[in-house]
Design a protein that fits this description.
Layout: H1 14-40, H2 45-51, H3 58-66, H4 77-82
Helix pairs in contact: 1-3
């Protein structure tokens, strides 16, 4: 599994850094956790786990209804894509 690190340059204003932090910590991280939870509940999860691979489109299919969940509304589209 690859990891991507988000870097926030300190030249951004404090308000900008705070806004980005809130988007990541308060909205996006819970979305990712919810996706992981829902994927683990899928009927084919054990097969996917043994193959170490999810079928193409699985995450997008599961994420789509979460976009309208009040807990995750209002994130930039890039955040949904990165989840």
């Amino acid at each position: 599994m690859s990891q991507i690190t988000v870097q926030c340059r300190l030249v951004a204003t404090e308000a900008t850094r705070r806004c980005l932090w809130e988007l990541m910590a308060i909205q996006n991280t819970p979305l990712i956790n919810e996706l992981l939870q829902q994927i683990s509940l899928q009927d084919d999860f054990e097969t996917w786990r043994s193959q170490a691979k999810l079928p193409s489109g699985t995450v997008e299919r599961i994420c789509q209804p979460l976009k309208s969940d009040p807990r995750f509304i209002g994130q930039p589209s890039r955040f949904y894509t990165s989840a």
